[in-house]
Amino acid sequence: MAATRLELNMVRLLSRCEALAAERRDQAEWRLEKYVAALEDMLRQLKNQASKPAPELLNEYSRKVDFLKGLLEAEKLSSSTEKALANQLLAPGRTPTTAKERTPATKTVHLQAKARCTGQMRSELLGTVGLVPLLHRLSLLGLPSDEKQSAVELDAVLQHHQDMQEKLAEEMLSLARSLKNNTLAAQNVIKQDNQTLSHSLRMADQNFEKLKDESDRLEQHAKKSVNWLLWIMLIVVCFIFISMILFIRIFPKLK
């Protein structure tokens, strides 16, 4: 089925949105959000059209639009850990949007977003680690003993806060890895189910073909049986007719 004008315009806009998502954007960048909103409207119109694309293609369009929408929502989060978790749960497209792409652009965008979130988390952790020694050195320069004691206590509080942050970051990373493993396990289960379903469909097709062949063979056999029976009946009728004529010739009518 040929693509409609609405579908062509949606594919062009989708490709433009993927290119914008792959770029390093300013916080004040508004085009991508407006474009994604327009994509959602076009997708709704495409689903309501009489000459709409195949269900698989519609599902792929929906997957890519949902990915871009989720990417924008993840970028609005304040914490880098929350951004990393939100990006981990996103599902990019499976097929390229245009013929020029070798791999789906949404997969590339997904990898870039995860790399940025990981870099932000690393920077925040390194910044927190370097903060305590700096405060410790500043607090001990040129201070009396009682103030040094207060500085040491403050240093201990900051160190405890740093340890708590590191522990929380490790737990969040562990949770992210667990979510990733669960997602991969679910994908493997779905893949195995699809393979089993495909095998069952192939077996059903083969059984249907065999049943069709056997039905044709049985039909031909039934036709042959009917033909033989017809010929036997004709021979019996002819034999009876000839026998009656011979009987009449041999035994003439009594006067």
Task: Report on the architecture of this protein.
The chain crosses the membrane at residues 228-251. The chain is an all-alpha fold. Helices cover 82% and strands 0% of the residues. The protein contains six helices and no strands. Helix 1 packs antiparallel against helix 2 (31-48), helix 4 runs antiparallel to helix 5 and helix 4 runs parallel beside helix 6. The longest helix has 106 residues, at 145-250. It is elongated, with a radius of gyration of 40 Å. The protein starts with a helix and ends in a 5-residue tail after the last helix. Residues 128-141 have low confidence and may be disordered.
Q: How are the SSEs ordered, and which strands pair?
A:
Blueprint: H1 5-22, H2 31-48, H3 55-75, H4 80-88, H5 105-140, H6 145-250
Helix pairs in contact: 1-2, 1-3, 1-5, 2-3, 3-4, 4-5, 4-6, 5-6
Give a short overview.
It is built from 6 helices and no strands. It has 255 residues and is mainly α.
For this entry, give a set of tags.
membrane, 82% helix, elongated, endoplasmic reticulum, mainly alpha
